[in-house]
Amino acid sequence: MNISEKTVNHYTILSLQGILNASSAPTLRNYIAGLPEAQSLVIDLEKIEFLDSSGLGALVGIARKKKSSSAVMKLARMNDRVKKVFEITQAYTLFDIYDDVSAAAEA
Amino acid sequence: MIFHLDTTTPQPLGVVLLKKRIDSNNSSELQKAFTQWLQQTNNFVFDCAELDFIDSSGLGAIVSCLRKALEQHGDLKLAALGPKVAMIFELTKAKKLFSVFSDRSEAIQSFSTVSPK
Amino acid sequence: MKTLLVIREQESAWLLDQFPGIHPLLVPICNKPFIEFLVDFAILAGSEALRIVSDGGLRDVELYCANGSRWGVEISYGNINPADDTYTVIEKNRRFCLKERIMIISGFLFIRYDKKSDYTSLFASLQSGELLRCPHGSISLTGDAASVISPAGTLPFSLVALDSIGKYYELSMEILRSGLNKYVLPGYSSEADCYIGRNVIIPKSAEIQKPVIIGNNVQLLANTVIHANSVIGSNVIIDRDSVISGSIVMDNTYIGEHLEVENKIAAGNLLIDPESGSSIIMEDPHLLTAMTPSRVAGTLLRRVVHTFAATILILIQLLPWLLLRPIVGMQGKWKRKREPYYTALAGKNVTLTSTYIESNGSLSTLAKTLALDRFSLLFKVLSGELALIGNKPVRVNASIRLLPNRVAGYRPAVFSYAEAEDWPEFCIDTEIVEHYYAVHSNPMKDISMTQKAIFHRTYQNHCT
User: Fold this and answer.
1) Does A52 contact C at CB distance below 8 Å?
2) ipTM score of the complex?
3) What is the predicted pLDDT for the residue at C408?
4) How is domain A2-96 classified at the CATH fold level?
């Protein structure tokens, strides 16, 4: 999995590319651990090719950590594969989901 | 099922309080008890205020009670049908066979106001 | 123009209680799924694209509507949170809403319209802002009009908030009595006020009065009477000498012999009185019975695999259990509790003995690591009451009655999928994993997941 980073407003935007599963979830977790704790995030999921329950678990964990340090984590541009996993697991109730990265980085 | 004789009316009146549900498990019980009650009176009120559910055999038992009462030149009236029980009576057209009253006292009164032919 | 449809789960929860297992947007009104009325209206108003956003699941709606090519409109789906206001909803769908005129239909609303009116030019000329509002929602427009012409008089459409079964019934009757030519309805209509579907068998002795709507695959038996103002769904049998009047018979319903259904809604084995909202379940074959789908045959293979694996586990655990159980029990660290739990079948419970081992000694830690606390539960796999791996059994609790019934694929088991993954920290996380595997599992994968579950037991945080 590749992670590319840019900053818009006070949000760090992480664009993920590739597979987010049990073996790549630690990469994402470690990457985010390297950022300041109170840094708000937008995670761009457009180029995710596969997401499984461990990958979803990583996203849930990050959202929780951000919430506890009163920062924000938003998801943007979910593709159909990702949407399907969110739909099955009803995980959409846990996230703020935007269809546009810049809109997510504004509010 | 609780049965008592009401003697406030010109003729003794059998008042029966039906409870919970009447289904295939206890419908024959009702029919058996009814033949005994028939030896004391031929006019009845079935109070359904505490009745939650009847199935088709329960319904059959009540209809056969009505038939027996009519054979003895009496009547069987129903009182206080709950919404669910009322739906079953309507659905099966059984409601047309009975005089139905909104509560027990109304049903009891109806026996004294209408003079027997 | 585009249309954004905002549906909140809470507004339609009552409908899910009445007709469980069918998404509120797919509940038929006069045999046409509710969502189709909204899609029709969006198209009449000139929309090229429609997005349905909800804070609840849309899977069934997505399966039904797909990408909208059936209607020639592009349909997409989105998620929001219950607390989001209209502004946030628009922000979350900014790419969809960008540079366009958007009609926002918010709330669980039925829109009365007339297919013969010209809504496209009307909506093109309406000023942006809120057009209509009722207690449960509104229709509004954003973006600039091509040329603003204030409409003469009232708007040629109005809102009906769907908030009770009574309203649902009233609306169906209203469409039957006065709206049949205003909407696009399914079925043949060789004469006015009469829509009949395919494969409808009507004997000579049956009587049908207008207005009426009948779905597909309907069988009326001898001497049945369908009085005016009735809607009969698809796959319905009305048995002989029965009378339907002013009633809605939903899909897949059997109406028994000699019955009189008057001003009611019959759905499967449920008979609902729309006026009082009370309903009865017809468990009796002489009255009404539901046509229940047979259990999926694929579960057989799973059962065989689970039984086999459970037998092996029992054989492995037998010796350690015989050795450790008395010792740990004497130490007072073997705690047992008998409680009822939900099974996969709605309305049926199973009593399980859950064991908890306090792991503060070397022997009890060993017992826990070997999963001896699940030993007695393994026998429930042999009797078919539990699966080997699946969901953590949910304790019977009146306040959460909906959960196991609503969640598709709930399968109480000795080990749970959440145990097999090493991340569950909170209960909601556990649910997510279990949902995922409810869809993605197969019997062979189950075996490896069981291994994982046993392996992870050494560093497991229990979720209470």
Assistant:
1) yes
2) 0.84
3) 55
4) Transcription Regulator spoIIAA (3.30.750)
